Amino acid sequence: MRKLPSLLLAVCLAPVVVAQAPIPASERAGFATLKAETLKADLGYIASDKLQGRMSLQPGDDLAVHWIEKQFRAAGLEPAAITAAGKASYLQTFELIEYRPNRAETALVLETKDEAGTASRTEFHAPVAFGAYKEEMDLTAAVAFAGYGITAPLPLQAIADDELHIPVMVVQDAVAEQLFSTLGTTGSALQSAIDKDLRPQSRVLAETTVTMHFANTNARRGTTSNVVGLLRGSDPALAAETILITAHHDHDGEAPCGEDQGGIDETGHDTPSGAECVQTWHGADDNGSGTVGVVALARAFAANGVRPKRSILFTVFASEERGLLGAYWMAAHPLRPLETTRAQINFDMIGRDEKASKQTDGLIEIPKDTTNRLNLIGALYSPSYDRVVKEENKRVGLTLDDRFDHESALNVFFRSDQFPFVLKNIPAFWWFTGFHPDYHHITDTAEKIDYAKMTKILHLAYLSAWRFGEDAQTPVFVANPKPQ
């Protein structure tokens, strides 16, 4: 091997350093406050046993609400809500109904007539037909096939004063076959026809009537709150415009351990079985990470001194796990005009590395290395939002991934708190580090969070929010994007 000149050898072996763009001087003070050790301390509390898994309408979630409120007040944010008594508040409170379906009594009754006019009546119960609704009711109506859709858990909480009153029932294939008997086709055939050319196959099911009977074993009313704090913009003309930075504070609560089973504590250690044993869904990543992320950014912007021209509304939503209820409530009852809301940054699980799990096996390909990767979901609806984040990422250096904008198996786009605002034509992205084996398990604990990576994500969000708050041209919403 020919020996290279010593000077050339030194140049070849020197590490290659890619210089990142500097942080603007007006933004550095707040940027510097975003530190891994602070995130770790905050998440240690939010995901602790004391908060009992933060189930909506339970005392542990109330503790989370009061902690967030305290942090917003300490940061100097303005209260952004108004109570029924007309006082300023950090809490946008609304009423929920929590209910437990009676699976034995809830029923679907199918009545049909064949070509000869012979009537038949069949009654179905769980598990072949089941559903839930916040109120006990009977509903009889004709039947139409509207298309096929997504599957999602049925929530056991609902907004008491909701604009929609649509009870839902899920049926298995055997029931579906009888439903489609008067059409001379099957549900799977109609689904294949839709998939073939994306044309609707909607049609009325002739001579078919169903009665849905919903019964509950119990129901109760309670209140929960979105926590909201406002950083008012510095420009008198643009301060009326709003940037949303959001997450959700609730998770899945706790339950008695199974027989001869222990639990896992907040530090990820096993706990012994026994009569007093409790399993806690700590929700460190989902969505303790997003909750403390919003709080960290609120502190950063408030401590920065210089403020962006537009206002920022920091919001931590209630009852996301029960069906995005807090986000839907705010979208229907906005605290600031939606028509001048320019962008939403929504955090939901920003603390882990994406890994294969039962949630994703066989449905989506996961990159081999996700240690520096952030999924951005929503670019189809606002490419201009996407461009801003990518430009600011030159200062941070994350690997940005848009896979979830191009898959339909997991229906990810509909599953977090940005979605109700997309329905209102607001450029809104879900910032998400991906699924992992601890997703919605008691093993989602604080010691598994990658705090350094989380800090980088918040750095990028901070810089992106500054651009949304300062740029003359704000992100544009695309109402009917074409799939790419």
Describe, in plain words, how this protein is organized in 3D.
With 484 residues, the protein is an alpha+beta fold. The protein folds into two domains: 25-96 and 223-470, Zn peptidases (Aminopeptidase); 103-214, no CATH class. It is 25% helix and 25% strand. It has helices at residues 6-13, 28-32, 36-46, 59-75, 173-179, 187-197, 284-303, 325-332, 383-392, 419-422, 451-470; strands spanning 78-79, 81-82, 88-89, 91-101, 107-113, 119-124, 129-132, 137-145, 157-159, 168-171, 203-214, 216-231, 242-248, 254-256, 263-264, 270-271, 278-280, 311-317, 341-347, 373-377, 399-401, 428-432. The strands form six sheets. Strands 1, 4, 9, 12, 13, 18, 19, 20, 21 and 22 form a ten-stranded mixed beta sheet that branches. The chain has a four-stranded antiparallel beta sheet with strand order 6-5-11-8, covered by helices on one side. Strands 2-3 form a two-stranded antiparallel sheet. It is globular. The model is unreliable at 1-18 (pLDDT under 50).
Which features characterize this protein?
11 helices, alpha+beta, 2 domains, single chain, disordered N terminus
